[in-house]
């Protein structure tokens, strides 16, 4: 990735020691930069966690875990970790800098590798991984992106960000950490990982190096995960026939769906790879080796050169030692007998050769006709139409039979699986069953309304459906954490009281948050705090007169929009202005009884002197507050009386 001037990290001095020079790569959790260690005067790679993750304790813990895991390893095939620390709000990790490319880059450039190249890379990765497994560390994220190929030829494993202790094999809600294309079946189905999960990922990587492609592809990650959990990884030679059978067997061993059938750790697989390496390279050498060439001397006498039998390297006879007398004539009878004996001996050899060739021809015919050579590898037919699959099998000399199978990942009408499975070897003329997808399996959902959220989720997942969207709303009639209603994600059909559905589909839930708290009678600040605890906002609204609520306190609260109330919604607070003012009537000159009734009927309280108890009639002389003024309802009016 090229540097960008906008990156504020370029040129920054971290922890007073590491001068950032340029950006190397960026991932989901951190960015890696090239930096200079000013203290030791060397280039290093510094990984800096993204700022928005700094407050996430889980990410920070995983970041520190990478440092601790990698720092425990000291091996030529593992990227060295030099330092780890915190500079202001940045968590960083200092590593060995390896100029070069990743295995992913190599595969993009070359497509696939030779058997020898694959074994060289695999041996280096297994060596480093064996050291990790011996130290009690499982990598859990092996993939070509994490295999570094240095310019000087070194091969190293990096990125121990998901590493865990070997015996820490329980799921913690993060079961599918890692890259989906390399996840082992036990990680997909149970969220459990150990050293054998790394072996599975290496097996998939080996397949990819040999063939240039991954064994499983799909439009959605769930489709790929389903294949890892339920299918057998095909042999690489089904894609590239020239791949040696020994490497086929190594890939099959490493990618066995049952972890018990895989190598128990990287050391066991490394030992086996070294044996395979010797066999494969020896076989390759035998096929390409030059046959020895014998060069005969040009100085051989013509008599020797013409003879039927030549003895090479024999010491030539000196012509000076030959007798001077002329040679005697050969014995014709002996000569004929010798030729007959030679013809007879030649006849035996020819007969033996013919019999050997006949035996070889017969053996070859048996091998390819009814022996092991007649076996045919079942091709990968998943997601093909039955017609296309039948045509492929017929061309290979195999028969077909149709079956059915429910599938949540393969569309109805296409081949969901075969029996025997892909890469299995069967005799010519054998029958392969094509199981055609019927779509997702129908299921019946029970009553969901009234269940707790956890109970409803468990019920749905046990039926092999999934929980889709969860909408949480306030409902005073339903306890918090209880399902109010449920609906099918596909068509919004109500399944609150149960109903028909399909395996693998999503069920949407509406869950109660309980009732909105009653804030009447609280101060504005108090009401705002109560609503905030429930995830609701408050704003000051209308002010009204209230005889029951003191001035400045909340009379009531109401949602500012119609419909169900959700977290984050705003409530308008109606605030009391106190009791409504009432005009004091004119009761001056009125008899005491009439004045009392007039004021009491308006809600006023009365205060008067002892003169009112006199035995003679009394009339109102004055009022306080005076007549015609306003006073709060319920306030006290003082009356002054005088004899009539």
How is this fold's topology laid out?
Blueprint: E1 13-14, E2 18-26, E3 30-37, E4 42-49, H1 57-71, E5 81-87, E6 90-96, E7 100-102, H2 103-110, H3 115-134, E8 137-138, E9 147-150, E10 155-157, E11 164-165, H4 185-190, H5 195-211, H6 221-230, H7 245-254, H8 266-288, H9 302-306, H10 332-369, E12 376-377, H11 386-395, E13 399-405, E14 415-419, E15 425-426, E16 431-437, E17 442-445, H12 453-462, E18 466-473, E19 483-488, E20 499-502, E21 506-512, H13 524-533, E22 537-544, E23 554-559, E24 570-576, E25 581-583, H14 592-601, E26 605-607, E27 618-624, E28 630-632, E29 636-643
Parallel strand pairs: 13-16, 18-21, 22-24, 26-29
Antiparallel strand pairs: 1-2, 2-3, 3-4, 4-6, 5-6, 7-9, 8-11, 9-10, 12-15, 14-16, 17-20, 19-21, 23-24, 25-28, 27-29
Helix pairs in contact: 3-5, 3-8, 5-7, 7-8
In short:
Residues 18-280 form the Protein kinase domain. With 644 residues, the protein is α+β, with helices and mostly antiparallel strands. The protein has 14 helices and 29 strands.
Describe the protein's architecture and organization.
Residues 18-280 form the Protein kinase domain. This is non-specific serine/threonine protein kinase. The chain crosses the membrane at residues 348-369. GO terms for molecular function: ATP binding; protein serine/threonine kinase activity. Its EC number is 2.7.11.1. By secondary structure, this protein is an alpha+beta fold. The chain folds into six domains: 13-96, 2-Layer Sandwich (Phosphorylase Kinase, domain 1); 101-281, Transferase(Phosphotransferase) domain 1 (Transferase(Phosphotransferase), domain 1, Orthogonal Bundle), CATH 1.10.510.10; 376-437, Trypsin Inhibitor V, Chain A (2-Layer Sandwich); 442-512, Trypsin Inhibitor V, Chain A; 524-576, 2-Layer Sandwich (Trypsin Inhibitor V, Chain A), CATH 3.30.10; 582-643, Trypsin Inhibitor V, Chain A (2-Layer Sandwich), CATH 3.30.10.20. Helix content is 30%, strand content 24%. It is built from 14 helices and 29 strands. The strands form ten sheets. The chain has a six-stranded antiparallel beta sheet, covered by helices on one side. Strands 7-9-10 form a three-stranded antiparallel beta sheet. Helix 3 (115-134) runs antiparallel to helix 5 (195-211). It starts with 12 loop residues before the first strand and ends with a strand.
């Amino acid at each position: 990735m090229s540097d960008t001037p906008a990156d504020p990290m370029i040129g920054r001095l971290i922890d007073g020691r590491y001068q950032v020079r340029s950006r190397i790569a960026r991932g989901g959790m951190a960015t890696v930069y090239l930096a200079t260690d000013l203290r030791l005067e060397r280039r290093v790679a510094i990984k800096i966690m993204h700022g928005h993750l700094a407050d996430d304790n889980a990410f920070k813990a995983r970041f520190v875990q990478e440092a601790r895991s990698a720092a425990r390893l000291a091996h030529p095939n593992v990227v060295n970790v030099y330092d780890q620390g915190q500079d202001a709000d940045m968590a960083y990790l200092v590593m060995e800098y390896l100029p070069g490319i990743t295995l992913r880059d190599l595969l993009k450039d070359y497509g696939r590798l030779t058997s020898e190249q694959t074994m060289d890379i695999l041996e280096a990765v297994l060596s480093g991984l064996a050291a990790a497994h011996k130290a009690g560390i499982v990598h859990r994220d092996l993939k070509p992106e994490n295999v570094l190929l240095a310019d000087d030829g070194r091969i190293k494993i990096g990125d121990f960000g998901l590493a865990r202790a070997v015996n820490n094999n329980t799921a913690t809600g993060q079961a599918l950490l890692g890259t989906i294309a390399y996840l082992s079946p036990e990680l997909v189905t149970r969220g459990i990982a150990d050293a054998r999960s790394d072996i599975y990922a290496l097996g998939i990587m080996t397949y990819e190096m040999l063939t240039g492609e991954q064994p499983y592809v799909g439009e959605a990650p769930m489709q790929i995960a389903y294949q890892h959990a339920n299918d057998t990884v095909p042999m690489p030679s089904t894609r590239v026939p020239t791949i040696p059978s020994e490497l086929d067997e190594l890939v099959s061993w490493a990618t066995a769906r049952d972890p018990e059938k895989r190598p128990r750790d990287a050391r066991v697989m490394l030992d086996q790879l070294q044996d395979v390496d010797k066999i494969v390279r020896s076989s390759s050498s035998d096929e390409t080796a030059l046959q020895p060439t014998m060069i005969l001397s040009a100085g051989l006498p013509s008599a020797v050169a013409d003879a039927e039998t030549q003895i090479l390297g024999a010491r030539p006879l000196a012509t000076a030692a030959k007798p001077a007398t002329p040679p005697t004539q050969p014995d014709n009878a002996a000569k004929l007998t010798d030729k007959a004996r030679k013809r007879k001996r030649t006849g035996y050899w020819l007969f033996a050769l013919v019999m050997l060739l006949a035996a070889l021809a017969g053996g070859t015919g048996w091998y390819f006709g009814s022996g092991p050579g007649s076996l045919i590898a079942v091709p990968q037919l998943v997601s093909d139409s039955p017609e296309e699959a039948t045509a492929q099998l017929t061309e290979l000399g195999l028969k077909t039979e149709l079956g059915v199978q429910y599938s949540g990942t393969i569309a109805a009408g296409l081949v969901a699986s075969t029996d025997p499975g892909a890469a299995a070897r069967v005799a010519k003329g054998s029958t392969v069953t094509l199981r055609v997808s019927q779509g997702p399996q129908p299921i019946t959902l029970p009553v969901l309304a009234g269940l707790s959220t956890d109970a409803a989720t468990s019920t749905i997942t046990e039926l092999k459906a999934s929980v889709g969207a969860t909408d949480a709303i306030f409902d005073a009639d339903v306890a918090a954490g209880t399902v109010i209603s449920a609906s099918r994600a596909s068509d919004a059909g109500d399944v609150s009281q149960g109903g028909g559905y399909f395996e693998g589909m999503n069920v949407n839930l509406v869950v109660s948050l309980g009732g909105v708290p009653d804030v009447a009678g609280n101060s504005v600040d108090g009401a705002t705090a109560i609503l905030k605890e429930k995830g609701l906002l408050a704003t000051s609204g209308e002010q009204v007169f209230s005889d029951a609520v003191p001035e400045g306190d909340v009379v009531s609260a109401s949602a500012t929009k119609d419909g169900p109330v959700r977290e984050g919604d705003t409530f308008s607070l109606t605030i009391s202005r106190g009791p409504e003012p009432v005009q004091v009537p004119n009761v001056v000159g009125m008899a005491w009884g009439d004045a009392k009734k007039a004021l009491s009927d308006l809600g006023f309280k009365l205060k008067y002197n002892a003169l009112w108890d006199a035995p003679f009639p009394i009339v109102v002389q004055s009022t306080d507050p005076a007549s015609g003024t306003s006073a709060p309802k319920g306030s006290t009016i003082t009356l002054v009386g005088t004899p009539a």
